[in-house]
Amino acid sequence: MPKAKGKSRRHKYSYNLNRKRLFRSARRRAAPRIACSHIRHAWDPHKSVAQNLAEMGLAEDPNKAVPIPRKLLGMEVEGDAQQPGKKLVRKPYVVNEMELEASLPEKKGNTLSRDLIDYVRYMIQNHGENYKEMARDEKNYYQDTPKQIKRKINVYKNFYPEEYKNFVASLKPEKMEVQ
Question: Does the record's keyword annotation contain Nucleus (predicted)?
Answer without folding.
Answer: yes
